[in-house]
From TrEMBL:
InterPro entries: ABC_Transporter_SBP, ABC_transptr_periplasmic_BD. It comes from the Bacteria. Residues 44-297 form the Fe/B12 periplasmic-binding domain. CDD domains: HutB. This is Hemin ABC transporter substrate-binding protein.
Length: 304
C-alpha cells in the first residue's frame, strides 16, 4: 500500500474523533515509517563508476554494496565484490543478476540499450552527472549521499573534501614555473591521442598549476608529429597500465623525442582512477601531481 493511500485511510478514520494536533502527530509518524521503509529497501546497491564507489566507502556505506564495475579499484576491498563489467560496456542482464534494489550509475555508462533496460526495470536508478571541477566533486557526494539517505555523513564528507580541495589548489598555485604539459591517452596508430579542454585530464593539469598545450582542442583528439613538436610540451603525462613497463619508450618516439619533454626525459605516469576520477581522493592527486611538476620545474630553465 502506498504512502498516500495509508495517509488518506488513516485520516478518514480519525477525522471525526481526533483534533488537528493529534492528526499532525499521527501523519508525521506515518511519513517517518514510510521513509524508514524506503531506507530499508536500499540495502542492495550496485555502484557503476570509480568515483561513486569511492564516495560510498567514504560515507561508510560499503555494507550496502553488492557489486561494482571494473573501474572501481579503490579501496582494494571493492575489488573483492562481484563485478558487473566495464561501465561503458554493460550487460543489463549481468547487472540485474546481482538482484539490486538501487543502482548508482555514472553519467556516460553504456551502451544505451543496456542503460535503457535498467531504467525500465522496477529498480531505483540514480544517474550521477560528471563535472571536472571541485564543485562537480561536491555535487557527486551530495547526490550519492542523498540517494543513500545519509544527510549527516554527506554534509561532513562535503566539508572535509572541500577543505582538502581548497588547500590542495592553493598549494599547487604556489608553483612559480608553470609547465607546458601534454596528456597522452594512447600513442598507437601513428597519431597520439591527446587530451584537450573539457576533459578530466585538462582539468587536473590546470588545478595542479600547469598548462595543457592542447587546450585549443576539445575532448580527446589525435595529433600529428608536427603539431606535437610545435606545441613543445615540457612534460608528457600518461595513465599507468596494468602489465605495461614500456611507457617510458614514448619519449623516444618520433615527435616526442624532439620536444623539451623528450629531450629532458620528463614523463609522469599516474593511475587513471586516482588522477582522473574526480572523487574524494582528488585533492591528494592534485598535490601529488603538483609535486611532480615542482620536481621537474627545478631542472627546467626559466622561461624568458
Amino acid at each position: 500500500m502506498g504512502l498516500l493511500t495509508k495517509v488518506f485511510n488513516s485520516f478518514s478514520i480519525l477525522l471525526p474523533y481526533a483534533g488537528a494536533a493529534l492528526l499532525s502527530v499521527f501523519l508525521g509518524m506515518l511519513i517517518g515509517q514510510a521513509q524508514a521503509e524506503t531506507m530499508q529497501q536500499d540495502q542492495r546497491i550496485i555502484s557503476i563508476g570509480s568515483s561513486l564507489t569511492e564516495i560510498v566507502y567514504a560515507l561508510n556505506a560499503q555494507d550496502k554494496l553488492v557489486a561494482v564495475d571494473t573501474t572501481s579499484l579503490y579501496p582494494e576491498e571493492a575489488t573483492q565484490l562481484p563485478n558487473v563489467g566495464y561501465m561503458r560496456a554493460l550487460s543489463a542482464e549481468g547487472v540485474l543478476a546481482s538482484n539490486p534494489d538501487h543502482i548508482l550509475m555514472m553519467e556516460g555508462a553504456g551502451p544505451t540499450t543496456a542503460v535503457d533496460v535498467l531504467k525500465a526495470a522496477s529498480i531505483k536508478l540514480t544517474e550521477v552527472s560528471e563535472a571536472y571541477s571541485p564543485q562537480g566533486i561536491l555535487r557527486k557526494i551530495e547526490v550519492v549521499g542523498n540517494a543513500l539517505h545519509l544527510p549527516a555523513q554527506t554534509q561532513a564528507l562535503k566539508a572535509k573534501v572541500k577543505a582538502d580541495l581548497d588547500e590542495a589548489i592553493a598549494y599547487a598555485q604556489e608553483q612559480s614555473n608553470p609547465l607546458k604539459v601534454v596528456f597522452v591517452i594512447s600513442e598507437g596508430g601513428g597519431k597520439p591521442l591527446v587530451a584537450g579542454r573539457e576533459t578530466g585530464a585538462h582539468a587536473v593539469i590546470e588545478l595542479a598549476g600547469a598548462t595543457n598545450v592542447f587546450a585549443n582542442l576539445r575532448g580527446y583528439k589525435p595529433i600529428s608529429k608536427e603539431a606535437l613538436i610545435a606545441a613543445a610540451p615540457e612534460v608528457v603525462m600518461m595513465m599507468s597500465r596494468s602489465g605495461s613497463s614500456r611507457q617510458s619508450d614514448i619519449l623516444k618516439q618520433p615527435g616526442f623525442s624532439l620536444t623539451p619533454a623528450g629531450l629532458n626525459g620528463n614523463l609522469i605516469v599516474m593511475a587513471g582512477a586516482y588522477l582522473l576520477g574526480f572523487g574524494p581522493r582528488t585533492a591528494q592527486a592534485i598535490r601529488d601531481l603538483s609535486d611532480h611538476f615542482a620536481e621537474i620545474a627545478t631542472k627546467t630553465p626559466p622561461k624568458s
